[in-house]
Design brief:
Chain lengths: 403, 338
């Protein structure tokens, strides 16, 4: 078993770099169709507890969900759920009997909770989308540095666990607390580098919606998705969803850590958008998600017959609100028609939409899908741009060939 | 591969395998420190249950990539400085970015993320990244020939390099004296870098420098490909001093007062992080101690901002301790599965 791993490493070394030959551990390649490229990525099943995934980076792992997964339903299977780690020191083994979650800082009673403690607390569940704030970064133009995701750095799951509020109440948050900062078992290779941590305002942390999940779609989490406990912040981007959650610190001063003060910030402008090269704007942390909708059964490579009735479907989510409606346009956005929405799994869940459209006699069929959330927020017609490649939610477009 | 990486064993089971391996390895030497301290019966696979939910302990192995940045010596800085913390993949997949954009990225890595490289390396890294696609296309057309490497290891070269096997053994395990490092299974990229540095004198060695100078670039590629591919056993060695091993384990896992954490870069149990970071698990204590002293004294300068600084923070007893600890981690890969 160990031998095989070493053998693979040798093959990868020989064939490494941009060699056109298939690395031994890659099953195939996928083309992500990013403007200007490079857009070829390996598909692999080499990661533990994961079926086939798109490799964006091996160490620390960045794994994207292949697009066809999203057409199969609103729940993203655990073994296809995207993976994103900042630092390479990731525990490869977790002993559930020894694991402890510390709750400390500006509290009456510091806690060191076992998993048995968490399993004994009142249990809640929520269906919620976890999306990397840099999802779709590879589609930004001009292109920006960072993980070159296409649209697959998102997933939807039923999360089961306990309320962060209940954990905080057990510790007793002292008056004057302003934030609750979370971090996990992962560490940077270089100890001086900033540890990954994210704060929530104390009121948000205590709103009852934020949970500590020990189950995902009814099973324990894959290690790479944050086993044994992950913070779930419905409606907010994934950087707040701390994996392998091991430390909760209640702060009585605003958090100054790197990933809050410097990293994961966006322009404080509509759609977090600025002109390339623009400077001098105020920035804020990237926090709440915005509505998106996608086509899942048709792509730019789909061909339909002239005059055929074409079933069109996809998924949508409302960001930090529910999906109010998803509309389709076949005339470049001049007119929009409602689509039928699938079963409602909750405010923060993916929701399937579907409709049918008649193909023209010849040429092509260009379709756009647009989600409006329950707060009245609608996807923009123009793509946003910022230097971090964050919060893309432009109306998606596909061009089908009629032949 | 898929089997290996997908193997999810409860931590308790992994621990049993590990202890059995240790016990087997040390039969010759009566008992090792670890086996002596371990409970006679391994704990049951660990689970936690409550409210109808059962959580099982998990132990996995994450796959690694030893992709490197191509382009010969022009890639030295980016390979040595960047691959310590992350594999090359995401960098290679970036769009064409301006020099200013790359400059900002590299400075972020050093200033904000504390990447341990010298400011003088920044221009070389930025140059490389700005010309990323040209540099990568310079990858040598010739693939290393491990069979030819084996011939050199056994017979030496016509240019005067003696057979490597004289000191390192044909299978790269050297000998129990620890005077010569174990090379079997070590990353080819790492070994080739050492040979180049022996030739240039950046790493000083009266024995290895003339040998390295006698090897052509092709010979270096072939020999290192050969040793990297050898899956050789570990020699039964004398039982180490248990207290020394324990101290070494503490330094390796948690670091000393200044938090050195050998394992952070060299992998859990010293399993290595190819291509740049060599494995230490199962390496000879004598060699580890000797090479740390070489770092301290400036005879080895091929990673100046990292290992020299770290070595100078270790006293003689600490050097012996980490060396003793890693030697008895008999298999780097088994250690990684622990």
């Amino acid at each position: 078993m160990m031998q095989s791993r070493r053998r693979i490493l040798q093959h990868a070394g020989v064939l490494g770099g941009m060699a056109a030959t298939l690395p031994a551990w890659a099953d195939a390649f996928v083309n992500l169709d990013l403007p200007g490229g490079p857009d070829r990525r390996e598909l692999t099943t080499a990661f533990p507890q994961k079926a086939q995934m798109i490799v964006q980076r091996t160490r620390p792992p960045l794994l994207e969900t292949p697009w066809d997964v999203y057409d199969r339903g609103v729940f993203t299977p655990n073994d296809r759920f995207f993976v994103r780690w900042h630092w390479a020191v990731i525990p490869e083994a977790v002993d559930v009997a020894a694991f402890k979650l510390d709750v400390r800082g500006h509290v009456n009673q510091e806690l060191s909770l076992s998993l048995a403690d968490l399993l004994a607390m009142p249990r809640v569940e929520v269906v919620a989308v976890c999306q990397c704030s840099g999802n779709s970064r590879g589609l930004f133009q001009p292109r920006v540095a960072g993980a070159q995701w296409q649209n697959g750095a998102m997933g939807n799951a039923r999360w089961t666990g306990v309320r962060l509020r209940d954990v905080l109440d057990r510790a007793g948050v002292k008056a004057g607390a302003v934030a609750v900062r979370s971090s996990g078992l992962d560490d940077p290779v270089v100890p001086a580098a900033p540890k990954v941590m994210k704060p929530l305002d104390v009121d948000h942390a205590r709103d009852g919606e934020v949970i500590l999940a020990f189950q995902m779609n009814g099973e324990q989490l894959p290690l790479l998705n944050g086993f044994p406990v992950r913070l779930i912040v419905p409606g907010w981007y994934g950087d707040y969803w701390i994996k392998m959650l091991s430390d909760i610190e209640v702060l009585n001063v605003p958090d100054q850590n790197y990933f809050e003060r410097v990293g994961y910030r966006v322009p404080d402008t509509p759609h977090a958008s600025v002109k390339p090269g623009e400077t001098g704007f105020k920035t804020v942390p990237v926090t709440r998600m915005v509505p998106r909708s996608f086509f899942t059964n048709v792509t730019d490579t789909t061909t339909v017959k002239p005059g055929a009735a074409v079933p069109v479907r996809g998924i949508a989510f409302g960001g930090d609100g529910g999906v109010a409606r998803v509309e389709l346009s076949a005339d470049g956005g001049q007119t929009w028609r409602q689509t039928a929405l699938g079963r409602d799994e909750g405010t923060y869940s993916f929701r399937q939409w579907n409709t049918q459209i008649m193909a023209p006699p010849s040429g092509s069929l260009t379709l756009q899908a647009r989600c409006t959330n329950t707060k009245g927020e609608v996807q923009p017609a123009e793509p946003n741009w910022n230097g971090g490649g964050f919060m893309r939610n432009v109306i998606e477009r596909v061009q089908l060939t009629v032949a | 591969m898929a089997n290996s990486a997908n193997a999810i064993a409860p931590g308790g089971i992994a621990a049993v395998v590990f202890l059995l391996t240790i016990a087997t390895q040390t039969l010759w030497a009566c008992q090792s420190a670890l086996a002596a301290e371990a409970p006679p019966v391994a704990p049951a696979p660990s689970i936690v249950t409550g409210g109808g939910v059962t959580l099982h302990s998990v132990s996995v192995s994450l796959p690694r990539s030893d992709n490197t940045f191509q382009g010969g010596r022009g890639a030295d800085a980016i390979n040595n400085d960047c691959l310590i913390c992350h594999s090359a993949g995401m960098v290679l997949d970036q769009a064409t970015l301006s020099r200013a954009a790359w400059q900002a990225e590299v400075e972020k890595m050093r200033d904000a993320f504390k990447a341990p490289f010298a400011a003088e390396d920044i221009p070389a890294i930025v140059d490389y990244l700005t010309n990323l696609k040209n540099m990568m296309s310079q990858s040598a057309g010739r693939q290393p020939d491990a069979k030819h490497g084996a011939v050199i290891v056994a017979q030496g070269t016509a240019t005067g390099a003696p057979p490597c096997a004289q000191c390192h053994a044909f299978n790269g395990v050297s000998d129990a004296s620890g005077a010569f490092p174990r090379l079997a299974g070590q990353s080819a990229f790492y070994l080739a870098g050492q040979l180049r540095d022996f030739a240039s004198g950046v790493r000083a060695s009266a024995i290895m420098s003339p040998i390295a100078k006698a090897l052509s670039p092709g010979d270096v590629a072939d020999v290192t490909a050969y040793f990297a591919g050898v899956d050789a056993p570990f020699l039964p060695l004398k039982a180490p001093n248990a207290a020394l091993v324990k101290h070494g384990e503490e330094l390796a896992k948690a670091g000393g007062p200044e938090k050195l954490h050998c394992d952070n870069c060299h992998g859990r149990g010293g399993g290595g992080a190819p291509p740049v970071i060599p494995y230490l698990g199962g390496q000879y204590a004598h060699y580890i101690a000797f090479t740390l002293q070489m770092w301290q004294e400036g005879f080895r300068k091929n990673s100046p901002d990292a290992m020299a600084v770290i070595a100078k923070k270790l006293d003689d007893e600490e050097i012996l301790a980490v060396a003793a600890y890693y030697q008895q981690m008999s298999s780097p890969l088994e250690a990684a599965a622990k």
